[in-house]
Amino acid sequence: MLVSQENGIITLTVNRPEKRNALTPDIFSRLTEALRSAGKEGVVRVVVLRGAGEKAFSSGYEISRLHGPEESDFQDPLEDVILAIETCAVPVIAMIYGYCIGAGVSLATACDLRLAADNARLGVTAARLGVVYPPSALRRLINLVGVSATRELLYTGRLVDAGRARDIRLVDEVVPADRLAAVTYDLAREIAGNSPISVRGTKKMISRLLDSQSISPVTREEFLELQKQAAASQDLREGKKAFAEKRKPEFRNK
């Protein structure tokens, strides 16, 4: 992960362009730490989150790192990053080039604003792998695009182009790829030039209002059990194998 800072704007870059910026537990940990630090530094006004290059924001969780049946202590580090974005004291802007898939969508939807290049393709392919999408990411997606569009995205696992993503409010704005950086940093500078007390206070209130939809401990345990069942399933093993072999998986509901 790369970190750069200029004029109160910090840019966090997932730097694995050869892997379409696929995410790993180490990257999640680094992102969480960087976001927590950014919120504490008084000089930081805005965070920009992106993937290296212009081919992918992130292609999602690296398939080989997905939980398997041998892992009894099921933990999802993605939840920590989502919480760090949501509780970061300053706005976080997702700058999306190319592929934004799975956990990449989770990161982007947790951000305060999402700007996409016209070459962007977004989707959640959990159903094509045999994975249950984490509840906090699911709640954020429902808040953004509504129940019907969430069902369509999750049930089908299809990727949508930038125009469709804008139409269902998965992204806020679509611009030509060669203009995305300029438009994103113009927006970041505009926000950074405003009153930090006002912007930070507004973000905190919005986050607290969204917290009113918080999941009860009992429901959270139920959701975790669903994730554990998928993580230990033969379907997940088949999904990972099919992905590696570049073929359509044959799921057995086991």
Written overview of the protein:
The chain has 254 residues and is of the alpha/beta class. It has a domain at 2-178: 2-enoyl-CoA Hydratase, Chain A, domain 1. The chain has ten helices and ten strands. The strands form two sheets. A six-stranded mixed sheet has the order 1-2-3-5-7-10, with helices on both faces. Strands 4-6-8-9 form a four-stranded mixed sheet. It is globular, with a radius of gyration of 18 Å. 37% of the residues are buried. The model is unreliable at 68-72 (pLDDT under 50).
What's the gist of this structure?
The protein has helices at 25-40, 77-87, 103-110, 126-129, 135-156, 162-167, 180-192, 196-211, 217-231, 234-245; strands spanning 2-6, 9-14, 46-51, 56-58, 92-96, 99-101, 113-117, 121-123, 160-161, 173-175. It is an alpha/beta fold and 254 residues long. The chain has a domain at 2-178: 2-enoyl-CoA Hydratase, Chain A, domain 1 (Alpha-Beta Complex).
